[in-house]
Amino acid sequence: MDASPYYSTLGRGNESQLKVDDADGLLSKWPLFLDNSFVPRGYAVALVDMTGTNHSTGCPTVQGVTDNLAAATVIDWFKGRRVGRGQDGAAVPAPGWFNGKTGMIGKAYDGSLAAASAVTGVDGLTTIVAESGPYDYYDYTRSNGVIQRGNHYVASIETAPGTLTDFASWPVPGAQPTQLFLTSGANAGTLSLAPQAGGEQTTTFTDSTSQRETAMIGDETTVTANRRVFLSPPLAEPVRISGTPVVQLDASANKTSTHLGAILVDYGPAFPRVSRTSDGVQTLTTSNSWGQASATDNGCYKDVGERIDTTSVRWRVTKGVLDAGHRTSRLATTPIVADQRYPFSFPLLPNDYTFPAGTGSGS
Fold first, then answer.
1. Do residues 100 and 107 touch, judged by C-beta distance below 8 A?
2. Are 308 and 273 within 8 A, CB to CB?
3. Please, are residues 325 and 147 in contact by the beta-carbon 8 Å criterion?
4. CATH class of segment(s) 2-135
5. How far apart are CA 44 and CA 30, in angstroms?
6. In angstroms, what is the C-alpha Rg of the chain?
7. Other residues' Cβ atoms within 10 Å of the Cβ of residue 267
8. Which residues of 144-162 are buried (b: 16+ CB within 10 A; e: fewer)?
9. Where are the domains positioned within the chain?
10. pLDDT tens digits, the chain, 363 residues: what are they?
11. Are 82 and 97 in contact (CB under 8 A)?
12. What is the 3-state secondary structure (H, E, C) of the chain?
């Protein structure tokens, strides 16, 4: 079973396939390969329209109760515990092919629906294979009070293009907390393992709401009006980060509301890395068939491959933002006073990344 809100909108799979009905209102084209591959092997496949989507009645609620109960309700129908009805409202008997066991699969929202079905404890759901589904909608839509979309998932770690490594825990075993200090410099400042000697050093810049990330991380050795850069010396050996970098600042603003942001950057020669474009995935021109076909569903799907970046010499490793009003709580806003200094601490997005020897990192 794959329960989804997308069968009539975004579609499923890399080719965004939609459900297609025949003249009698029966499904004639099934998105993805599940039917082609599993039905000939003795399985039944159910592609469930989530509440309020496609042929299902009701209203979608962004993972509210009705969304989360949609697939469990279908399993109740499978088991004969609930009356199912067709588009005309007539009762539809429970399917005779159901053997009492259901496995759910799905990516993104589909994966969340699978997890939501599991926690209901519904009798008849045996297992789920959920991939990359949101588990915390605050973290999915906000970061430290700033409204955004930050997708950051960790199932295995891709340590190089095409190389996935499994770890028993994460951050990876052996990772140690390491503190770096922002210190002043002639142009760009520096990242150091020890605080700067002497009196306190301060710096000032003017925020620009139109400044793009490319401008923030570009021309790193030049001081500009709208950002500050701190660079490490070239690395004598590879350095791996595994976990959640945290930025700690004392700062003031000349307004009562502002956002603070930081970017961790790898400055150095280009080498193969998985591109961020389209989540690092590209659709290839070749295809493979995944099982039996029908007149309307040939069972063939385009192959996919990784999208590799081999040219970037400024690579954003991770980043983070903070709404100054949420410096003490993500739930409540506490305004700042203009020109008054406050301590701020905020995490960057979790990451696992190795800086090669000879490169420099910046923030």
1. no
2. yes
3. no
4. alpha beta
5. 13
6. 26
7. 19
8. bbbeeeeeeeeeebeeebe
9. 2-135, 144-272+310-362
10. 999 999 999 999 888 999 999 888 888 889 988 999 999 999 999 999 999 999 898 888 888 899 999 999 999 999 999 999 888 889 999 999 999 999 999 999 999 999 999 999 999 999 999 988 887 777 777 788 887 764 444 478 888 898 988 888 889 999 999 999 998 877 789 998 988 888 788 899 999 989 999 999 999 999 899 999 999 999 999 999 999 999 999 999 999 999 999 999 999 999 999 998 888 889 999 999 888 888 888 888 899 999 999 999 999 999 999 999 999 998 889 999 999 999 999 999 999 999 999 877 777
11. no
12. CEEECCCCCCCECCCCECCEECCCCCEEECCCCHHHHHHHHCCCCCEEECCCCCCCCCCCCCCCHHHHHHHHHHHHHHCCCCCEECCCCCEECCCCCCCCCEEEEEECHHHHHHHHHHHCCCCCEEEEEEECCCCCHHHHHEECCEECCCCCCCCCEEEECCEEECCCCCCCCCCCCCCCEEECCCCCEEEECCCCCCCCCCCCCCCCCCCCHHHHHCCCCCCECCECCEECCCCCCCEEEEECCEEEEEECCCCCCCEEEEEEEEECCCCCEECCHHHHEEEEEEEEECCCCCCCCCCEEEEEEECEECCCCEEEEEEEEEEHHHCCCCCCCCCCCCCCCEEEEEECCCEEEEECCCCEEEC
For tokens 């990784």, name the residue: 306
**This prediction's pTM:** 0.73
Query: Does domain 144-272+310-362 match CATH 2.60.120.260?
Result: yes
Other C-beta atoms lying within 10 Å of the C-beta of residue 67: 23
Neighbours of 298 (CB within 10 A): 14
